[in-house]
Amino acid sequence: MTIPLPRRAFLGATLAAPALSRAQGGARLLVVGGGFGGATAASYARREYPWLDVTLVEQRTRYITCPYSNRVLAGDLGLADITHGYEGLRARGVRAIHDRAILHDPVARSVRLRGGEILSYDRLILSPGIALRHDAIEGYDEAAEERMPHAWIAADGAQIALLRRQLEAMPDGGVVGLVIPANPYRCPPGPYERISLIASYLSRHKPRSKILALDAKDAFSKQALFQDAWRALYPGMIEWVSATDDGRVVRVDPGAMVLETEFGTRHRVDVANVIPPQSAASVAADAGLADRTGWVPVNPQTLESRIAPGIHVVGDAMFPGPMPKSGFLANSEGKAAVAAAAALLRGEAPPEPIFVNTCYSHVGPDYAISVANVFRADAGSGSFKEVPGSGGTSPRGDLPEQRRLEARHADGWYASMARDIFGWQ
């Protein structure tokens, strides 16, 4: 979806919405983007604030989640298992419109859809997700995605399905190359879960194959836990190359299937999964909401854009400071944004938000690890801060029952999240 708007239109407009533009019955909340953050906001608003008139705009009629897509690559699940509709949100009273937002008028507080409908709002929650920075790696453009898929934006599932087919077609003894970006990006542990689950597939079906992971970082989330598991479950199969050891890929040749690092090392691979650097989706950039980092700066108390108050931005598009870009946090942020919007519509002070994160990573079909954190708004820094002692990671060691239990917890987390967001009964 795109909402093109010159930056000056935001800077020159008076955007503060009235404290309560209409009586409590019928205040209009418009949500653009139907992923973890946006669908959560729409669903939660109807459950907790029934006086809100809630409309969700999402161009796709079915949503394929990035969480659990790595299990599709491993062959443990099919795309149907991670595909969700919006019937449950409609049953909760959300008006769900499947169209593309193309023009935003911040003065009139309205959004025009590609089909011609104009939607007015009192508060807008924007959850557009990410865009891939094709300019960050030489040779990697939209055409290259068909040879070297990213599979990092689920969309219609085409990229996930393509990477899965390439893995199936690769001969035993082939090399799978992964290109991993520097921070920040969507789902920090995601590439390493992907390495693990591709290794799980290869170990069962193509055991002579190798995985080469070229990383633009020197450290990563849950690193010790992942590497312990790799040594135990997939010995000799995975080679991880840090940035210091020449792991940062600067150039690709899709025709020759070559990944080239900054010091000129050329790696020929059979399958290439290139995850490029990212930014907020174009809807945010076109609307002038993103700053020079490429992400949207927000007020941590209300999650309103610092450039355009009255527009709350949640999920991967915002700049979260120390918070990771995770599905669980997008869910938490969607709820916090709704609570803030409802309070402001009533002329009340927004509640103090608490942002909870739990991130499970499958390392094998019956083996998972996790990290948990709690964050609060930090008035001093104008950002977010982790609550001391609020979280941690799974313990290290030979703990097979713990890993099996966490795998079951992970499956339960995904099922409960889908019910919470998409309204499974």
From TrEMBL:
Residues 161-276 form the Sulfide dehydrogenase [flavocytochrome c] flavoprotein chain central domain. Residues 383-402 are annotated as: Disordered. Keywords: FAD, Flavoprotein. Residues 28-141 form the FAD/NAD(P)-binding domain. InterPro entries: FAD/NAD-bd_sf, FAD/NAD-binding_dom, FAD/NAD-linked_Rdtase_dimer_sf, FCSD_central, FlavoCytC_S_DH_flav-bd, FlavoCytC_S_DH_flav-bd_sf, SQRD. Residues 351-422 form the Flavocytochrome c sulphide dehydrogenase flavin-binding domain. It comes from the Bacteria. This is NAD(P)/FAD-dependent oxidoreductase.
